[in-house]
């Protein structure tokens, strides 16, 4: 995959082709049946871990005999959630092109991945981290919507995931430091990575009061008026509040989407301001958004691009803000050429960013 000139405003079909190429790369180099179980799918954490004597075959026909695919090796639950979201992106992109065959294949793979996540997580959806659960709740909700769209019926497993994870998120929400949900079951830190996607999930579920309360709490406790961006988190302490002031790209994305989903006049005003703040603080003109380092960090900018693309298409926002959001996504997509990433998180991020560009 080579770089691309975002300023040329190439047709979305070109971005769609690049996104499809990136998706095929992820599925071929990382995807495999979990423990060889039919009807399951999972992403290996490193490229090559899914290789073996059948590597030349299409991914769905390979035997997974490589010893590196031990079932209880290192586990990154939330990476798989974003892999699931990217598969669903591909399905909706196919539907936008009236390609129901490709969309149905993606739906089938998404169901297999959700089943693989369940089995790999020891047969349950709850996890130690509430941000992990919020990300999977979002993806599972989209999977159910895709099933309804394609087959006029819900997905029982996706609905089970949504119901289970929503209950967990409700249980993490209390009045300590004014509100918000905890990051983990240790219940000693409330952060934007958990509250942003949880607010978006509640908004999508129609629980506007809960979503609005979380968005309001984020604004009161973790919004930095100097930059217009959201800080990382807050520790309850004897003095009341110890704030972690690091600014991450991905923290801005789900808050932006939650504001748009809530859609009240002030929410739309805040969404507009947040897009402009991202443009000032996290974007370099002509080069795109800041790319974060590391395994988890390799997903961060993709998450922001996913939700900037939604904003870019929201006609309730000013044209200037929509253009800013679009430009940031396209410029970032243009940087993601070169050699395919060796790690699942980075490969999924590339797929996510290109799919976001294709949607514009």
UniProtKB/TrEMBL annotation:
Tell me which InterPro entries the record gives. Answer: 6-hairpin_glycosidase_sf (IPR008928), Glyco_hydro_76 (IPR005198), MUG_Protein (IPR053169)
Q: Specify one Pfam family.
A: Glyco_hydro_76
Which branch of life, at top level? Bacteria
Its GO biological process annotations read: carbohydrate metabolic process
Q: What is this protein called?
A: Predicted alpha-1,6-mannanase, GH76 family
Q: Recite the lineage of the species.
A: Bacteria, Bacillati, Actinomycetota, Actinomycetes, Micrococcales
């Amino acid at each position: 995959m080579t770089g691309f000139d975002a300023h040329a405003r190439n047709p979305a079909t070109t971005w769609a082709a690049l996104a499809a190429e990136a998706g095929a790369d992820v599925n071929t180099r990382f995807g495999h049946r979990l423990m060889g179980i039919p009807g399951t799918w999972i992403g290996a954490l490193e490229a090559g871990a899914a290789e073996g004597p059948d590597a030349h075959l299409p991914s769905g026909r390979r035997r997974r005999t490589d010893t590196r695919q031990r079932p209880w090796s290192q586990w990154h639950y939330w990476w798989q959630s974003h892999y699931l979201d990217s598969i669903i992106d591909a399905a909706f992109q196919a539907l936008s092109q009236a390609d129901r065959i490709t969309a149905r294949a993606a739906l089938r793979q998404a169901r297999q991945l959700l089943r693989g996540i369940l089995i790999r997580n020891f047969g349950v959806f709850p996890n130690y981290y509430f941000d992990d659960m919020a990300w999977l709740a979002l993806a599972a909700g989209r999977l159910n919507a895709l099933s309804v769209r394609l087959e006029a019926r819900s997905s029982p497993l996706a609905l089970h995931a949504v119901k289970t994870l929503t209950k967990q998120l409700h249980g993490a929400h209390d009045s300590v430091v004014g509100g918000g949900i905890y990051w983990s079951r240790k219940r000693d830190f409330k952060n934007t990575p958990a509250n942003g996607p949880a607010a978006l999930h509640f908004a999508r579920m129609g629980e506007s009061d809960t979503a609005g309360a979380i968005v309001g709490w984020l604004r009161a406790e973790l919004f930095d008026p100097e930059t217009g961006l959201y800080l990382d988190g807050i520790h309850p302490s004897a003095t009341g509040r110890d704030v972690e002031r690091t600014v991450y790209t991905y923290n801005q994305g789900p808050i932006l989407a939650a504001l748009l989903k809530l859609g009240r006049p002030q929410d739309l005003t805040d969404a507009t301001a947040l897009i402009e703040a991202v443009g000032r603080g996290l974007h370099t003109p002509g080069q795109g958004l800041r790319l974060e380092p590391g395994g988890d960090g390799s997903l961060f900018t993709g998450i922001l691009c996913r939700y900037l693309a939604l904003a870019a298409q929201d006609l309730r926002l000013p044209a200037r803000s929509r253009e800013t959001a679009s430009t940031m996504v396209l410029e970032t997509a243009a940087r993601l050429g070169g050699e395919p990433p060796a790690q699942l998180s980075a490969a999924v991020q590339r797929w996510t960013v290109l799919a976001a560009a294709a949607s514009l």
